[in-house]
Amino acid sequence: GAAAIAANQNETIEDEAARRINFTSYFSVSYDSLQERTKEEFIQYVKGALAQVATNVNYTLEKDIAVDSRDAHALEFELTQQGADFAVLMVLVYGDNGDVWAVSFNTVKEKWDEYKPMFYQTADSFRLK
Asked: Is residue 78 within 8 Å of residue 65, measured between CB atoms?
C-alpha cells in the first residue's frame, strides 16, 4: 500500500479516455523490502508485478541514480489502461537494512514532457529519516 499520495486536482486533461475515468496526475510513495533479493532481483520483481497489472508496459528509460546520496533506480515507462495512455516515472530508493521506497509519478502521456523535470526534481528531494 501507499504511504502517501498527492494528486493534481486542478489540472486539465485532454485525453478523453483519462477524463472518463476521472484521472488526475499524482505521485505516491510506498514501502517494500528486498527480502533477501539483490537490487537487480528486486527490479525484476517490480517489473513482474507491473506486468500483472498491465500487459503492455513499454520501458522507455532505465538507469541507476542517487537520491539523498543513496542508491536508487529510475524506471520510465508507458502503458495503456482503459483506453488512456499513461507515462510513469518510478524511482526505487534503497534505504537501510533492505528497505526500499518506491516513489512513483503518474500522468497522461500528453503531460509527460511538461511534468518530467518536476517529477525528477521531486524524486531528488526525497529524504529518508
From this structure: no
